[in-house]
Amino acid sequence: MSRFTTSDGTEIYYKDWGEGRPVVFSHGWPLNADAWDRQARLVAENGFRAIAHDRRGHGRSGQPWQGNNMDRYADDLAELIESLNLDDAVLVGHSTGGGEVARYIGRHGTGRVAKAVLLGAVPPLMLRTDDNPEGTPKEAFDGIRAAVEADRSQFYWELSESFYGFNRPGAAVSEGVRRAFWMWSMQAGLKGAYDCVAQFSETDFTEDLSRIDVPTLVAHGDDDQIVPIAASAKRTAQLVKDATLKVYEGAPHGLVGDFEKAFNDDLLAFIRG
């Protein structure tokens, strides 16, 4: 197992598979790097170097009391990239990880980055405001915090259903996928998981997106119940200068089955291009 220690003393776990141009994966909340395993294996088997870390407070990384905020997440990613001396990298972020990628570029630029992929990503802003009327009301995020605090195990189990669209009529429900989601989620510390809710929901990434000056694939399911597409991918594609928007019809937030295969094909084509 590979680990490094950040400048504030937090130990970060990461996987490092294959050789070649680096593809760096940032995971969603409240998961960890394992959620990217199929994509990491895919790119490593096709001549790339796959790197995926557990965000602080999540998975096998340290669970500090302080630093559970988007700026620090982005700085952790920067320190990982610098510690491995990565250049010409493709950054891939899902959900909260998409916010992490955007904030990384906003704070650290694209000197080490060649391309970006934002999948089901939270930018530019999830929260409903006067300027963002298609966002999600704050009460929904207050409810998430209350559920995490009261009985996070039950909440994560129930969340897995809408996360993967298993609550839709005719969906092929995988008990194994739901159990994996629950297991990954339970590895997140309560403090880090709780703090992260405000970070993925209330952080405004508009300025970060304006600083992305590399080719960017914005991929999103149009039946995403977690990060609705109208306030996220459709706006992001307008804000990023060199963005390609790919919409998966009927796809949920967490891609499974044919939806995941379609994204994998698009990911591989994009990083090869």
Automatic annotation (TrEMBL):
Signal peptide start-end: none
Keyword Hydrolase: yes
InterPro entries associated with the record: AB_hydrolase, AB_hydrolase_1, AB_hydrolase_fold
Superkingdom as given in the UniProt entry: Bacteria
Gene Ontology molecular function: hydrolase activity
Domain AB hydrolase-1, residue spans: 22-254
Keyword terms: Hydrolase
Pfam families: Abhydrolase_1 (PF00561)
Entry protein name: Alpha/beta hydrolase
Organism, as annotated: Streptomyces levis
